[in-house]
Amino acid sequence: MRSASRFLGAVMLLAVFPIVAAAADELPSYLRDRGTGIRTSMFSTFVERGQLLVYPFYEYYYDNNLQYSPEEYGGVGVQDLEGKYRGNEGILFLGYGITDRLAIETEMAYLSASFEKDPADTYGTPARVEDSGIGDIEGQITYRILTETEKRPELYTFMEAVVPHDKTNPILGTEDWELKFGAGGFRGLDFGTLWLSVSAEYVSASETPWDLGEWEIGYIRRINPAWRVYGGIEGQATDEAALITEVQRKLAPYATLKLNLGIGLTSNSTDFAPEVGVMFAFPRK
Asked: What is the pLDDT of residue 4?
């Protein structure tokens, strides 16, 4: 019975992929890797007009040099120290294409995390802090300024907002509103698609509220109708950078397995952050 089910599943996938391939062949070569959808904040993920994306995923955080100040955890002083951080996060991402140029998205997270202080910390910081609960709650709007053609790249702009909550909790909370305003673009070439994005960040609780926000330099390549890969560098301001790799495997026309790995390139970045989930794309209207 199990063998018969596997055979039937294989037959269904073989029947589906030629249809997907035929649709991909109809696209201009510069859209081969990403299609016609609008960019989302998920790496190499795009949403079409009238399409709903639902992406439940899990992410793990491993960091042995988390920079902190004792006062953040109830100690005394603002010295820069390095602690150990571990986190398990379940996240739900929702995205929707309102028009061919406008898309919205939101993320909600549940986080279980622990922190261990630096052995050199003698400033009253608790040796270990653990907590679990609601993590980041954020939303984003993306607007496509220019659609890519044979002679010009695609350009877009976006705005992101992170909602403050649990303000005194250093592990789970967000102290105040965090806003990002950014822009980026794509260019499809024979060897793959290049992606560049940069943003400015406003944090109302900071002494210097405006700063360089997130930036990304990426490469997207659709190997065949079933597989797509992404590689790039993502950073925050000028002192954080991480290598990001992702493999996507289409399981069905509406479901894609995403395997992502982030590796810190600087001391301020999370050392190791794997992610796994299945993206569901409900049909366009």
From this structure: 45
**Cβ atoms of 191 and 209 closer than 8 Å:** no
Q: What's CA 210's distance to the chain center, in Å?
A: 22
> Which domains does the chain possess?
2-59+84-112+130-282 (2.40.160.40)
pLDDT tens digits for 239-249? Answer: 899 999 999 99
Nearest to 229 by CA among 249, 215, 246: 246
The number of angstroms, rounded, from the C-alpha of 169 to the middle of its chain's C-alpha atoms is 23
pTM, full prediction:
0.87
Give the Cα separation of 71 and 169 in Å (integer).
Answer: 12
Nearest Cα neighbor of 279 from 248, 256, 260 is 256
Residues with Cβ within 8 Å of 144's Cβ and at least 6 positions away in sequence, in order, are 38, 39, 100, 101, 102, 154, 155, 156
